Amino acid sequence: MPGSRWPPSRIQCAGINGCSVSKRPSQPFRGASSEGKQMPRRATSAISPFPQAVGVLGFALILATACLGRGQELLARLPEVVFAPSAHSVPAYTVEHVEHEHGRQYDTWDLQVLPDGLLYHSYLAGTKEPRFAMQWFHETNAGWLADAALGGRMGLLRYGTRDPLRPEGWQIDVEGGALPRINLEEDMDLMAVDFRVGSPLTYARGPYRMKLGYYHLSSHLGDELMLEHPGVPRINFSRDSIIWGHSYYWTDEIRLYGEAAWAFHTDGGTRPWEFQFGVEYRPSRPTGLRPTPFLAVNGHLREELDFGGNLSIQTGWLWRGERGHLFRIGMAYYTGMSDQFEFFDRYEDKVGLGIWYDY
Predict the structure, then answer these.
(1) How far is 261 from 257, CA to CA, in rounded Å?
(2) What is the bridge-based pairing of β-strands 238-249 and 19-21?
(3) Which of 92, 104, 95, 102 is nearest to 162 (CA)?
């Protein structure tokens, strides 16, 4: 197809009658064309955007987050005469969760069906979190793309408090979403879509949060892409994983987090281990009509990339509702291996605008 940015087949021809089949194209968005823009394929072990030091830092953050939460629980059990910090040293969070600003008490634990709010919130800069979102990117090699998210998370059952903003207790959630990618430069063609579904058990006490659960993720090449380029084969990238995450609110507005996931079933090139870690700043109370700034940074390391991965940064303006729901608009930057897993071994560098809604 003349002028197409996707190669019509995954075949590299040495001559008119001599061709050799390649496993994947040299890059997923543009083939050899008159534009001369070509990204050579490199071994995944040689293209990790993260040095080993960043990976070590990520593992350290996961461990530190878990230790902070455990340490906070142990300190809370000590007699008051042993642990009695001064009024100036008590974080605002430790007293805020006892009484809401409207004067209602939220320190009683009970059993709730379909509770308000979440104990463990999705990572703001996590690119595979179930939510409603739309991002418009310009990618260095592919041109203009749109990444969407159609899904969300909700609580099914909770034993804990009823505070919709900072609840405590145990909760069972369910999550799911479709994460498609659209090529804005080729008639809005669907390039690929990832699907995710899962159910985590979450726990919250004071500034500490924990989740332990299961999720399934599978990737699918877009129908329009396969129709226009029938020679492009798809890969069956899928994983069924056990996930264990920890987060800690250093202050009311600043959260540190880290998680590890191990897949007991893998296919299509994925490997068992993956790690996420990051930090984010966002308001702790409802904002009303006036938005407040937010900033989120997320790192994602994956074993199939020799524990390389990607870095995602988002910043902009945020509105928070009375029930803790978040609506954001802002800028997003992404660099590293593709977060659309049909192209998981391809490097991407994207910058653009986005809107996000979280339950």
Answers:
(1) 14
(2) unpaired
(3) 104
Q: Residue 279: which residues within 8 A CB-CB, separation 6 or more?
A: 254, 255, 256, 257, 296, 297
Domain ranges (residues) in the chain: 44-358
Indicate the length of the chain as a whole number.
Answer: 359
Distance CA 309, CA 73 (A): 33
The DSSP bridge partners found for residue 137 are: 145, 352
CA distance 107 to 94: 12
Residue type, 329: I
CA distance linking residue 67 with residue 226, whole number of Å: 48
Asked if residues 28 and 339 have their Cβ atoms less than 8 Å apart, the reply is: no
- Give just the sign of the alpha carbon dihedral 276, 317, 173, 343: negative
pLDDT in tens, 346-357: 999 999 999 999
Task: Note the pLDDT tens digit of each residue in 62-109.
Answer: 555 555 555 555 445 444 433 334 344 334 444 444 444 444 557 899
pLDDT tens for residues 316-339? 999 999 888 999 999 999 999 999
Which is nearest to 213 in space by CA: 194, 197, 234? 197
Q: ∠ at Cα 147 (317, 189), nearest 5°?
A: 145
- On whether the CB atoms of residues 196 and 215 are closer than 8 A, the answer is yes
Strand duo 132-139 + 347-358: pairing: antiparallel
Q: What is the C-alpha to C-alpha distance for residues 6 and 253, in angstroms, rounded to an integer?
A: 44
CATH code of 44-358, in short, is 2.40.230.10
Where in the chain does DSSP place strands (E)? Answer: 11-13, 19-21, 110-113, 132-139, 143-160, 169-183, 189-205, 208-221, 238-249, 254-267, 273-281, 292-302, 308-320, 326-337, 347-358
- Any idea which residue has 């390391």 for tokens? 301
Q: Which long-range contacts (CB under 8 A, 24 or more apart) does 70-75 make?
A: 70/208, 72/205, 72/206, 72/207, 72/208, 72/248, 73/205, 73/206, 73/208
